[in-house]
């Protein structure tokens, strides 16, 4: 017994074809949207490639771009088939390939769903990529005279101001590295000598942060140096004072930005997948209703449409039987070739 059997007359078939045709072209626009989101995500990754130590993966945006292109292609083709299905004489040329087309659509829908899942899961590897990239970027902040790193200071400053963040995990990360270039240090000064001498690695460390960490909304002038020295500032206690630098770490800020973007894209791909499933079901009804006309020579005769010609269990059994038959056939061919080789 067919699954979800529906009886059709000419009027219902025409209405079905028109509805599915409209859905197909709506799905084409959805494909353009997926393509656009893939391009946008790829551009956003490239914009901050330096902050990810150039280790960011473009597999997912490339996959989204590919899915968008394929979505546009198969839906444009499906729309053309639905349009021609209104005329049985034109539909005849599409009939032999429709079964394979529908199988391809089912596989493509499954791949779309996998793409959506990957969008939601990308946050995990991105977290480690950002952590490593930001850590290295902060170490290179002072290398304004080093080729290949001279723009890192500008990149980090702009990023901290744009995302209102400071450091990797928090502003204290700047206390653990030398972020002032040796070019701007007076090595004859006692303070500089003491700071460098007190550090095992010979770095000039201080309890300060770059200017880009300052919060412009704070009513107090930015305290970016000697942040842990209460006596260095009037009416100041760094334990209780609401510091006027950004407290949020940049890894968390960027992860939230990209994570939100990927969740949005993932939700969009899920919706596109649902639309693709709907148009695939619609096309199956169009195909089956035109293939079962009571009188093929009379376009106005009644017909039946279904999603599956048999029940799910019977269909699955048939598929498994065909796969086993194909497997046995390939083994027989291999055996025949081996026997022929032995005889020769």
UniProtKB/TrEMBL annotation:
Chain segments annotated as coiled-coil in the UniProt record: none
Residues passing through the membrane, by range: 20-41, 62-81, 101-121
GO CC list: plasma membrane
The protein, known as: Peripherin-2
Classification lineage: Eukaryota, Metazoa, Chordata, Craniata, Vertebrata
Subcellular location: Membrane
InterPro entries: Peripherin/rom-1, Peripherin/rom-1_CS, Peripherin_LEL, Tetraspanin/Peripherin, Tetraspanin_EC2_sf
Membrane topology field: Multi-pass membrane protein
